[in-house]
Amino acid sequence: MTLLKTVDSQLFQAEIPYKPMGKYAHFLTIRITESYPLFQTDGELNKARVRAGVKDKTTISRLSMFKRKQSTPERLVGRELLRKYELMKPEDCEYNVNFAMDNPDCIIYGFAIGDSGSEKSKVVVDTAFSITAFDESHETFTLNAPFENGTMASKGENGSKPGEVTSRINQQDHIRPQVFFPSIVTLKDPTEASFLYVFNNIMRTRHYGAQTTRTGRVRNELIGVVFADGEITSNLRWTQAIYDQMKANNSLNSPDPLDEDEVITAAKNAIETLMSQEFIVHTDFIGDAFESLLKEVKNLTANETGIKSILQKADAEAKAYANKHISKKKTAAKAGKE
Fold first, then answer.
1. Mutual orientation of helices 288-301 and 304-321 as an angle, nearest 10°?
2. How far apart are CA 163 and CA 152, in angstroms?
3. Neighbours of 338 (CB within 10 A)
4. Rounded Cα gap, residues 186 and 125, in angstroms
5. What does the alpha-carbon distance between residue 328 and residue 325 come to, in Å, rounded to a whole number?
6. What are the pLDDT digits (tens) for 6-61?
7. Distance (Å, rounded) from C-alpha 241 to C-alpha 239?
8. C-alpha dist (Å) from residue 313 to 8, 82, 275, 332
9. Looking at the whole model, is its pTM more than 0.85?
10. Using H for helix, E for strand and C for coil, what is the string for 6-43?
């Protein structure tokens, strides 16, 4: 039984294939910071020096959001739902420790367990880049540790003198709110259930980067989905094309944050232009066509019956795939050791 009426079933695989079969679903996502997240390595914000636009040859530094900073929070949201609806037991599948190898998370997002086996991820996410330059997109905060009396001065504990100002001060760069990261999330050989599973994970995920319990609030705005028989443009080129559009429209008003409506409009126009240059067969759900799909997905995921139907179908497909292919890998690995 199909769950979606707005998408032709021929765009989906009937079951999860063992080898790549040339069907792709590309989720066109704009990630918008809504607090002060941290996307960093070795204590510094990730950034890259690149051209400002496709047409604009100026070189600028942009904030970078590495692929694992995007995919890991999304798959953890999916795992949480699988546990909630009792399709995954915590003791049977622990992330990066002991994968069960037969649930939607393991089969769709992949796993690697040494000699026990591995499964390549069917979700492809690449580094995303901020539309605005690094200097306009981050802020340096001074962090300190207040004492229990609410001040920065000690009361004489731990060998310090009463009234002495604490030296526990540190500085940390944070990404500002309303910084935009265009990101294309690609699902290879989607079934209807795996498509909805990944779609739902993207829409539900709210925190990215370090210190996710305290900051890192990010909202995902999906502007469309492209079904194709190959991969499409990169995050960087899409970002550069958006920058060119906004510059031409005089909507880059530094140091003020970008207007979200103008970013969304520029993103749609830019991706439509880029898709017209592709040498692949593609079916685009952008604009009004995507609104119908988005509404249908929302109706499914906004109630318990709908979300359970998605998860149960995805779980059945994952277990069928595992029984057919993962068990063979495990048997072959065991035979190789004997």
1. 90
2. 9
3. 4
4. 6
5. 5
6. 999 999 999 999 999 999 999 999 999 998 888 877 777 889 999 999 999 999 99
7. 5
8. 18, 12, 32, 28
9. yes
10. CCCHHHCECCCCCCCCCCEEEEEEEEEECCCCCCEECC
